[in-house]
Amino acid sequence: MSDLSNESVVQIEKNGIKYIQFKKLLEYEDVLTHCFTLKPLDFGDNSNYEEKKDIVDKNYKAICNELNMDYKNIVRPYQTHTNNVKELGENVGIFLEEHTDIDGLITNKRNKVLSLTYADCTPIYLFDPIKMAIGNIHSGWQGTVKKIAKKAIEKMIQVYNSNPKDIICVIGPTIRNCHFEVEDDVKDMFLKEFGDIENIITKGEIKQNKQKYYIDTVKINKNMLMKMGLREENIIDSKICTVCNSASIHSYRTDGKSAGRNTALIMLK
Ligand SMILES: [Zn+2]
Predict the structure, then answer these.
(1) 252-263 pLDDT, tens per residue?
(2) What is the distance in A from the centroid of ligand 1 to the CA of 86?
């Protein structure tokens, strides 16, 4: 299995568990813990969590143990491809009622482990080192069309008085324009929202009488974040495609309905 390390990413394998971390966030190791898990760790999805609970809990315990986080402080929302971003209250737990239809969490509280899960959708890690606040944003193609990243930044400005110029963002492993193939219906949704951004849509082949297109959602999210005032040098792209690397990363496009889920974790120490 290939190593996913690159100029912004380090891959770690310890005690049989594998994950990656981002060099930019590791610069703040004193105050911040984070990772993106790799196969074989699986965190289940909304529909099969109960069924997979034993293995999922075991995996959460393993990764928390590895990174010195308390498993009891995991917070995992019930993600449904919305653009709803919520500031975390006191409560922690998996699929809490108050975290139904939530695809982004922000907090300035310490020791709360924000866990969102991914299989091709885009993980967006946010960190404001001045106001000491973090975010974990699930921006699948639907969340991207609904501009969840923009909503997350607006919320950090509103709740923490963050200056967007201070916010550091990492775009984790996601399906990228090499593999995000769509047809006219989805292409038109992107065109409607983001028609002003150059080179986000590439025309592909015609398959079974249908014109295919490739969409660059990473470029769209970067553009959205820069329009919100983030500095280009503070937006770090992991440059990892989940489909190209499906041997290491759960991918819905590759594995279909049986696909497992990776989790992105971030916590203020
Ligand atoms: Zn790819």
Answers:
(1) 999 999 999 999
(2) 31
